[in-house]
Predict the structure.
Amino acid sequence: MSRSWQVLRALRLRFFGPGKELVGTDQFGNKYYRVPKHETRPGHVIPERRFVEPINRQAYQYEAGDFPTEWEAWIRKKRKNPPTIEEILKNESYKEEMKQKIKEISEKDKLLQAQGYKEGLVAEPAHTHVKGHASAPYYGKEEPSQDPTSTANTFQPGSWMPPSSDSSRNK
């Protein structure tokens, strides 16, 4: 490399820092990068940055599980080294195994519960339906109708008088 290229490279590193390094790719195709810790000018140290270039560039298209938890932990610096393919596959198989066990246990529990209900050992849950909410002024009462009501046919002008209060009589 010529001397001028070395000087330009040194200036680029000094002002912009080192370029991004590809660390790995997950099974979805997302690419994970890091920019190592570097010094831009004397005394000004920029810490290591970790980031992902997603396969889906639109943020609104992401859902939970689009990034493997191992990679997310690495990006958030919860782990020092990036995950390996073997580790990710091992964790995926463990998750599937746990899902299967949970499904089996919940099915056994439903059978035991049904048997308990059938034999009368366990009382079946009461099916109550309460309308409204406890903080509503009409809780437990019939809900107010959404249909408009009118007193147009029975209204008499001048027939309404405000209720008298005791405080106005004392004056």
